Amino acid sequence: MLAMRVFVPLILACSALLAASVGAGTLTFAAETAPETEAASLATPKQRLDALFSDLKKERDADKARELANQIRLEWQDSGSATVNLLMQWADKSITDNKQAAALDILDQVITLAPSYVEGWNRRATLHYTMGNYRKSMSDINHVLSLEPRHFGALAGMAAILGSAGKDELALRAWEQFLAIYPADRKAQEQLGELTEKLAGSKT
């Protein structure tokens, strides 16, 4: 597991520097169906995640890496509680029905019932973003990363918010953290390249 201290400076800097006005957009971290992997046979969720992350870091084929990433997302989705899992289904249904306020209330309940459940915080961060609550979204992203520093979905969300706010250097750092975990992601590679060129041009 990546050390928490790697992420703390980035999280604190983002909280301090995030501008009030950022562009709107959509962040989606939903899992797709992924085939079974060897990690699925391991005993505990932590063991399975550690094995999947190890494979993800080594995988250079984009399609195979995407399958691993989707398996990780599926692991994150299971809270271990039937009640919390049901509430998450209700929240998803409310979001699909364009009932954001109801979904937010449900996700608040999820976080109250299971404050260490990473995906509850992540889903609320995504919802806050789509509702235009960018500061609240960033706050929830920070909490996701405090619980799971390898959460590449939250890092992508952080990078998107920072980029929209004009915080290019911090966005670059977020994409670097993302690629340290998930190096085969092509979109992240492109975003990092564009920001690197942009920042290099601004210094000439």
Description:
The chain is mostly helical and 204 residues long. 71% of the residues lie in helices and 0% in strands. It is built from 10 helices and no strands. The radius of gyration is 17 Å and the shape is globular. The N and C termini lie far apart (38 Å). 39% of the residues are buried.
Brief summary of the model shown:
With 204 residues, the protein is an all-alpha fold.
Task: Provide the fold topology.
Blueprint: H1 4-17, H2 45-58, H3 62-77, H4 82-96, H5 100-113, H6 118-130, H7 134-147, H8 152-164, H9 168-181, H10 186-202
Helix pairs in contact: 1-7, 1-9, 2-3, 4-5, 5-6, 6-7, 6-8, 7-8, 8-9, 9-10
Strand tally is 0
Largest sheet: none
Note the overall shape. globular
Q: What is the CA-based Rg, rounded?
A: 17 Å
Cα(first) to Cα(last) distance is 38 Å
The H-and-E topology, N to C, reads as HHHHHHHHHH
- In percent, how much strand structure appears in the residues? under 5%
Number of helices: 10
Low-confidence stretches: 1-9, 11-35
Helix proportion of residues, in percent? over 70%
How does the helix and strand content classify structurally?
Answer: mainly alpha
What is the mean predicted local confidence, pLDDT? 86
Using brief descriptors, characterize the structure shown:
about 200 residues; mainly alpha; about 70% helix; about 0% strand; disordered N terminus
